[in-house]
């Protein structure tokens, strides 16, 4: 049995340890609370730099960062839109915080985050960055970013809930509506493709909804892409492989007008691109051809179909050996990088019987009756970043002109009467042995 002295000593020792622990907590309390108090969720745009960037990224689950340059015109236009969007996004649950970094001033921080042009926009989700290519108007930007904090799968219990969901989703992302499906069927895919699409399952719906979305049995997965006025229906099989193939194909519209923005949709798509080059994609002839191509695309979902007008983007189409003398429309199959293929005898499309000519082109491609070519211009990613390249070139040209102007002002003044003799006298006096400094 322990003696009273030992028991008292033991209690005293425990008491001392508790006191020391409490004192330690009191000393550390200011520093523990400092990181939390460093940022306020007040609906204003945070200003980040080298000293607080990492802390902000770790503090907020969702933070949208604008890497800008003070002289950048696009950045100046964007700033007030971010100010308007900030309080809207801060009110979400969970909130999205908007922040900005002066990438010119904090170049190491910008370089670390892969900034190569202005503005560069990224959303950090649980510390993981994702490039942002969406709209920049405050209301549209807020709607677009809401996607990232929405549930992986939304459960809809009525016709009105279905309609409200589709309306709130907007037009920037594809929307998948499951009918007669359990959410467990698509939960894995919805988490995987959350950044690229909206996913939902309707638990309660009427025949009016079936008529609206044009499906006649369940289970069914309806895909709609409001931006391109497209809709398709998948009736199974609902094994994950087949389901994922359908989802991936539906992330890109049946036929895509090729431009700076639409190319971004193709960055992660491994399919070949059937590219039709036209004189003017807005002409009546082109519109008729686009309808034919859309029908062909629906029967060839293993390929992406796109079109571009020489008038709309001549720099791009010239990479495929197209100029003003080329007979258009012209069809090629592009791998999205440096290679493309022309089909023997079927690369151009005449105005009569377009459908048959497109079918022959696809048959020739699948049979391997092709000639492989190497594009003469930038790759897909180069075209995406070409605006940045143009800006850098213009800046370089401006600096070069300024330097030439400065050098021209530093030239010797023209000789006037007496100038030559005066300059010779100066040179002779400088070179005269009598005027040189002597060494001690």
Automatic annotation (TrEMBL):
Residue segments, region Disordered: 416-440
Amino acid composition bias (Polar residues), ranges on this chain: 429-440
Cell compartments where the protein resides: Membrane
Keywords (A to Z) from UniProt: Disulfide bond, Membrane, Redox-active center, Signal, Transmembrane, Transmembrane helix
PANTHER family: PROTEIN DISULFIDE ISOMERASE, PROTEIN DISULFIDE-ISOMERASE 5-2
Family per similarity comment: Belongs to the protein disulfide isomerase family.
Protein name from the UniProt record: Protein disulfide isomerase-like 5-2
